[in-house]
Amino acid sequence: MRDIVNMDDEVIGQAEKSEIEEKGLICRVAFVMLHNAHGELLLHQRAATKRAYPLYWSGAAAGHVNAGETYEEAAHRELREELGIETMCRLVGGFYSEPDREMVKVFLGSYDGPIKIEAAEVARVEHFSLDRLSQERDAMLVTSFVDKSLPMVTEVLKSARDST
Questions:
Q1: Against a cut of 0.85, is the pTM above it?
Q2: What does the pLDDT look like over 123-143, one tens digit per residue?
Q3: Would you call 105 helix, strand, or coil by DSSP?
Q4: Which residue blocks in the chain are alpha helix, DSSP H?
Q5: Residues 149 and 59 sit within 8 Å (Cβ to Cβ)
Q6: Strand duo 27-35 + 102-110: pairing
Q7: Domains of the chain by start residue, with CATH
């Protein structure tokens, strides 16, 4: 069960996934980007068996927010489920995604520890420097969430790097 929201991201009801898709209702998604001590972003390649965007590169983790759950709770749940990771994350922005009709909140965290991939969700993970990602972006299949969140994440990382 998921919360249904309006364009102001206010909860207006609840529905199952099938009803949301059938009626084109708006739901919530938490999207997490992680960087390591070198400022490289951890991306994961979605499993080939995924219904949506198989083998596309995406952020560290992403997932729908369950009914009654906060975006932040969903972000942490997805990190645990997909990569076996526990780390602090902070909200860095958000956007509305078409055609999926999703309100997306973007979280950024730092992580240098071990990763335990959930094979049903993730084909592989890899760290990308911002320069490498910029150079290779056009040749990569990436989700729109990466494209939409990258400017927010890049600004935060560059700002942190400039202040040290």
A1: yes
A2: 999 999 999 998 988 888 998
A3: strand
A4: 17-23, 71-83, 130-136, 144-162
A5: yes
A6: parallel
A7: 2-162 (3.90.79.10)
